[in-house]
Amino acid sequence: MMTFDQILPVVKTVLAPHAALIARIQPVVINRDLNGRVRLIVSANVERETETWAGCRSIVKELAERLGAHAFPAEQMILLEDDMTSVLTDVPGFTLEGFEGVIVVDRLASEGRWASIAPVSDGVPRVVFFSIKGGVGRSTSLAASAWSLAESGKRVLVLDLDLESPGLSSGLLPADKRPAYGITDWLVEDLVNNGGAVFEDMVATSELAHDGEIYVVPAHGSAPGDYIAKLGRVWMPKINEQGKQERWSQRLSRLLDQLEQRWQPDIILIDSRSGIDEVASSCVTDLGAGLVLLFAIDGEQTWSGYRILFSYWHQADVVRDIRERLQLVGAMIPETSAIEYFANLKERSWDLFSDALYDEVPPGATTDELWNFDDSDEVAPHYPWPIKWHRGFAALTSLHTRLEQIDRQEVRSIYGTLVDGLNDFSGDIQ
Question: Residue 31: which H helix or E strand, with range?
């Protein structure tokens, strides 16, 4: 039985005998539509060459037969385009493994773009706090990190981009100090060129910091208003002044640039939604983060989820664009059997990273020119930055009160490795 996962292996098998033809007519686009059905897109010039056109017709005939429900009828399997560049502009695509000049383009119902990795921002350091699954203390860790960084004198900008499950601002701001608007308000107003109306009133300064500053940009304002209706619009693209479509993630990136320019932080901490959805995709791949913290607990959901994501980066041939930004964080290390738990977490992390991200070291070769680490290398991205489970930090809702009463030493005992790592990343090792 033919299923979606077999599409690309079948395409490779069918194309292999036609390598010379593919090289002559490239680029060739394998277009997977919203329903997972395949067509080939080639230059209109191909039809004018009798022998070449016959070869293309032979390819699509076999593809239609072998792909079954995942193909169009053979007579509809080829789309001709005068401008192939326009076909490949601003769409999620990747080179088909083993076939130079063959690009797989996925037409997706959502705007998740895990295969498109934006360059690291030229501005201040940006850090994304991400987790495959929720409930691992990610947002609490971000709040505590912001507090600790500010206590050391830094100006910290914090964004709550967990738009569908907001709450980070409650850990850093009392209810009466939250700003009137939030990220969702700006994204909706920006659609009608009215973002400036809310921009100055979407940032609040936390009173928790003494030596530095914590600027908090919440998902929504102090009065959420018609939040569900607004949330349904934040993902909308916009036609900009140049007449080009601007994806919601591009609009979000523009907002982040404006916030950075206005508030002049030393570091930006971004709380991402958990899971493999379009919000998380935008946070991890689109906002120019130089450091992406992968929160993990030792469970099958964690490892299978990260393996799916890493495998996709491999398939899309972008793994080298993202892997050096990644760092595993060992979340909620238990109080009992902590040594054994951490050892197992490190081993599972090493297995994942060495299989999916690190370069393979051939027999007799050295690692000098390869991206590879020993399993016990404490500066390797697979080596977990440990965060101890602590009853006083278990609930984000009470975190603001907790941080009002805490001292640096207590935060350091729980989050010390994480804070040191963030200081190192931002160029100020404590």
Answer: strand 28-32
Q: For residue 152, what are its two tokens?
A: 């050391």
- What are the structural domain ranges in the chain? 4-106, 126-425
Q: pTM value? A: 0.85
What is the mean predicted confidence (pLDDT) over 298-323? 92
pLDDT of residue 335: 84
Mean pLDDT over the full length of the chain? 88
Alpha-carbon distance of 161 to 183, in angstroms, equals 8
Contact between 289 and 283 (Cβ < 8 Å): yes
- Asked whether the beta carbons of 41 and 31 are under 8 A apart, the reply is yes
The pair of structure tokens assigned to 155 is 């100006």
Q: Rounded to 10 degrees, what is the CA torsion of 274, 278, 284, 285?
A: 170
Please, which pLDDT band fits residue 430 given cuts at 50, 70 and 90?
very low
What pLDDT shows up at residue 366? Answer: 63
Listed in sequence order, the residues at least 6 apart from 195 whose beta carbon sits closer than 8 Å to its beta carbon are 186, 189, 255
Inter-residue contact 66 to 8 (CB < 8 Å):
no
CATH architecture for the domain at 126-425:
3-Layer(aba) Sandwich (3.40)
Q: Are 80 and 47 in contact (CB under 8 A)?
A: yes
What is the Cα–Cα distance from 255 to 301, expressed in whole angstroms?
33
